[in-house]
Write a structure and sequence with these properties.
This protein has 136 residues and is an alpha+beta fold. It has three helices and five strands. It has a single domain, classed as HIT family, subunit A (2-Layer Sandwich). 30% of the residues lie in helices and 17% in strands.
């Protein structure tokens, strides 16, 4: 296992405010929250990016992420939230271990994003869709 802060949490070297744990997943409160209830969900499997994660660990996240979202919403009273998951330094990943943020929107606090859209080139998009689909 690597030496990231999450690896240290998984090994019990750093304490955390646990929310959920099973054989594949650990969830805990973020120590630098954007809003009250900002929660992290990590696989116990050491993988830097989502594409490197096994199907088993990915499925385990998929099974519990909605449940944890519901619990965060109920506990905080938030009516909206963001899920954030970054992959790689260029995508603003700060801890090199797969992790999902559940960030409630409360009293104007939470995740702020800028969404800079572009026009799609349908001819190029059709080619790209075929290329991506062929590699699955």
């Amino acid at each position: 296992m690597s030496d990231t802060v999450f690896a240290k949490i998984l090994r019990g070297e750093i304490p955390c405010h646990r929310i959920y744990e099973d054989e594949h997943i650990l969830s805990f409160l973020d120590v630098g929250p954007l809003s009250t209830g900002h929660t992290l969900v990590i696989p116990k499997e050491p993988a830097v990016t989502l594409d490197a994660l096994s199907d088993e660990a990915s499925a385990a996240i998929g099974r519990v992420l909605p449940r944890i979202c519901r619990a965060v919403m109920k506990a905080t009273g938030a009516t909206a939230y963001n899920i954030l998951q970054n992959n790689g330094l260029d995508a603003h990943q700060a801890v090199m271990h797969v992790h999902f943020h559940i960030i409630p929107k409360l009293d104007g606090k939470g995740l702020g994003i800028e969404w800079n859209t572009n026009e799609i080139d349908h001819a190029e998009a059709g080619k790209l869709a075929i290329l991506i689909a062929a590699t699955i």
